[in-house]
C-alpha cells in the first residue's frame, strides 16, 4: 500500500503516485481489450454520480467493466428503460473506479467501451476496437482520501522499484509538502447505520440502511446485527455480501396491543408531538424507551485472515410513534427463487387519516444480481384505487445460493415518509 497525505494536511498538492522500474519506466498492470462500444448521451456526467445515460446497452450485462476516457468503471445495474441511467458501482454515492483509475467528468457523446482485463503483454487479433494498457498509477485515492493518492502495488517480480510523486496539474512550490507512506496492507472495515435514532410507526416498520467502509482490499462478507432493541421491536440479522458495501432491513414495532413497546406500564410523561422518519412533526403521542434501555448498537463480524474481527457502531434510542398515513404489509414472509428465474411478492397497504393518494413502493437490501422487474417510469406504484401490488423479483443466472432478508416500504408522497413492512426473507436456491 502506498498513500500520500497532502490535501488532508492542508497542502496545496494534488498528488499522483506511480511506480517505475529500476530504469525509470512505468510498470504495466493490465491490458484492457475492448469488446463493444456505446456512447454517453442526454447530458454531461460529473465525476461523482453513479448514474450515466448511455445510447445502447444490448451488448452489456451486470458486472461488465466499461472504460470511459481513462476511467475504468463497472456496471451495477442496467437501465430499466430508455429514460433511465446505467448505474455503476459506487461507495457512499461516489462512483467507484477500478484498478486505481480516477473518476472524471465525461462529456455527452463520449465513447464507452466494454472491456475484458488481461495480463500485461497479452496480444490479440484486431477487432476494430482499441487495446489499452493500464499502469501502476493513481491520482485520487477514493473514499476518505479526497485529492490524496492511494495505490495498491503487487510487484510482478523481485527487484528494485521507484515511487514517483507529482502534482496532477504540474504545479509545484516550496509549500507543496506531502508525506508518503509505504506499508503492507491491513485489511479491515468499519460500519455505520442510518437512521441512528429511529422513530418507528406503531404496527409498522422503518428501513435501516447499513454501510460498510472496506479498507486495504478487504472484500469478504460482513454479518450485521442490531442489538439493544427495546421490548416490542424486532430486526433480522443480515449480511453485507462479499464485495458489496450496503444492505438494508426493517426495524419493526409491534402494535401496543400485542407487546408494550416502551417496556413500561404506559406512556412516559404527557403526550408529546412525534417526529416521523423524515424529521417532520406528526403531532401524535410518542412512547419513549424506558430509562433501563441502552442506545442501539450495530455489531458487525467478519473473518479476515482466518480471524474473527468485530466492529460496532452506536446510535441513539429507538422510539415508537403513532401510525401515520400508511401501513404496509408483505403477504409472504419469505420468497424463494432459482438463479435465472422469477418469483412474486404481494404487498398490501392500509391508508389512514383520510389519505387517498397513490403510493409508491420501494425495495432495499436485495443482494447484488437480484432485482425487481418491470418497474416502469414511476417505480412500483399502487394507484389511488388500489390497495395492493404484486411485483416480480428476478435473480440473474450467476447469483449464488443465499438466504438474505430485504425490506419493502411504502412512501407517502404527502409527507415524504417511509412505512416499511416486516423484513421478507429471500432464499436463492439451485
What does this protein structure show overall?
By secondary structure, this protein is mainly beta. The protein folds into 3 domains: 2-182, no CATH class; 187-323, Sandwich (Immunoglobulin-like), CATH 2.60.40; 325-430, Immunoglobulin-like (Sandwich). 0% of the residues lie in helices and 44% in strands. It has strands at residues 2-5, 15-21, 28-39, 51-52, 65-68, 71-77, 86-88, 90-91, 94-95, 111-118, 131-135, 137-138, 150-151, 161-167, 179-182, 188-194, 199-201, 205-215, 222-227, 233-234, 238-240, 246-253, 286-287, 297-304, 307-314, 319-321, 326-330, 334-337, 342-351, 359-364, 370-372, 380-382, 388-395, 402-412, 417-420, 424-428. It has no helices and 36 strands. It starts with a strand and ends with a strand.
Topology:
Layout lengths: L1 E4 L9 E7 L6 E12 L11 E2 L12 E4 L2 E7 L8 E3 L1 E2 L2 E2 L15 E8 L12 E5 L1 E2 L11 E2 L9 E7 L11 E4 L5 E7 L4 E3 L3 E11 L6 E6 L5 E2 L3 E3 L5 E8 L32 E2 L9 E8 L2 E8 L4 E3 L4 E5 L3 E4 L4 E10 L7 E6 L5 E3 L7 E3 L5 E8 L6 E11 L4 E4 L3 E5 L2
Parallel strand pairs: 17-26, 28-36
Antiparallel strand pairs: 1-13, 1-15, 2-12, 2-14, 3-10, 3-11, 4-7, 5-6, 5-10, 6-7, 8-9, 16-18, 18-22, 19-21, 19-24, 20-22, 23-26, 24-25, 27-29, 29-33, 30-32, 30-34, 31-33, 34-35, 34-36
Amino acid at each position: 500500500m502506498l498513500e500520500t497525505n497532502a490535501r488532508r494536511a492542508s497542502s496545496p498538492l494534488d498528488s499522483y503516485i506511480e511506480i517505475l522500474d529500476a530504469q525509470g519506466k512505468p510498470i504495466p498492470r493490465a491490458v484492457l481489450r475492448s469488446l463493444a462500444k456505446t456512447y454517453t448521451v442526454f447530458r454531461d456526467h460529473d465525476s461523482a454520480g453513479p448514474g450515466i445515460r448511455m445510447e445502447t446497452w444490448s451488448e452489456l450485462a451486470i458486472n461488465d467493466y466499461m472504460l470511459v476516457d481513462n476511467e475504468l468503471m463497472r456496471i451495477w445495474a442496467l437501465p430499466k428503460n430508455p429514460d433511465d441511467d446505467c448505474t455503476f458501482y459506487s461507495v457512499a454515492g461516489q462512483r467507484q473506479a477500478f484498478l486505481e483509475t480516477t473518476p472524471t467528468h465525461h462529456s455527452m457523446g463520449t465513447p464507452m467501451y466494454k472491456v475484458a482485463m488481461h495480463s500485461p503483454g497479452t496480444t490479440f487479433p484486431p477487432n476494430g476496437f482499441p487495446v489499452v494498457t493500464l499502469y501502476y498509477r493513481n491520482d485520487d485515492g477514493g473514499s476518505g482520501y479526497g485529492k490524496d493518492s492511494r495505490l495498491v502495488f503487487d510487484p510482478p517480480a523481485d527487484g528494485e522499484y521507484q515511487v514517483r510523486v507529482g502534482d496532477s496539474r504540474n504545479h509545484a512550490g516550496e509549500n507543496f509538502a506531502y508525506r508518503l507512506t509505504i506499508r503492507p496492507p491491513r485489511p479491515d472495515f468499519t460500519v455505520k447505520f442510518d437512521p441512528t435514532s429511529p422513530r418507528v410507526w406503531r404496527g409498522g416498520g422503518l428501513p435501516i440502511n447499513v454501510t460498510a467502509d472496506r479498507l486495504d482490499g478487504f472484500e469478504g462478507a460482513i454479518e450485521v446485527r442490531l442489538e439493544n432493541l427495546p421490548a416490542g421491536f424486532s430486526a433480522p440479522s443480515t449480511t453485507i455480501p462479499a464485495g458489496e458495501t450496503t444492505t438494508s432491513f426493517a426495524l419493526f414495532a409491534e402494535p401496543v396491543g400485542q407487546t408494550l413497546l416502551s417496556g413500561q406500564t404506559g406512556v412516559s410523561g404527557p403526550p408529546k408531538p412525534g417526529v416521523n422518519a423524515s424529521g417532520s412533526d406528526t403531532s401524535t403521542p410518542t412512547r419513549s424507551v424506558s430509562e433501563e434501555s441502552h442506545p442501539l448498537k450495530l455489531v458487525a463480524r467478519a473473518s479476515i485472515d482466518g480471524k474473527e474481527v468485530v466492529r460496532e457502531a452506536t446510535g441513539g434510542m429507538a422510539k415508537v410513534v403513532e401510525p401515520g398515513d400508511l401501513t404496509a404489509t408483505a403477504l409472504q414472509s419469505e420468497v424463494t427463487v432459482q438463479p435465472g428465474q422469477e418469483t412474486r411478492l404481494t404487498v398490501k397497504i392500509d391508508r389512514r387519516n383520510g389519505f387517498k393518494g397513490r403510493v409508491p413502493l420501494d425495495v432495499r437490501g436485495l443482494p447484488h444480481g437480484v432485482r425487481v422487474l418491470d418497474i416502469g417510469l414511476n417505480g412500483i406504484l399502487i394507484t389511488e384505487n388500489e390497495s395492493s401490488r404484486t411485483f416480480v423479483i428476478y435473480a440473474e443466472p450467476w447469483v449464488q445460493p443465499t438466504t438474505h432478508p430485504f425490506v419493502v416500504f411504502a412512501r407517502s408522497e404527502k409527507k415524504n415518509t417511509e412505512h416499511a413492512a416486516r423484513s421478507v426473507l429471500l432464499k436463492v436456491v439451485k
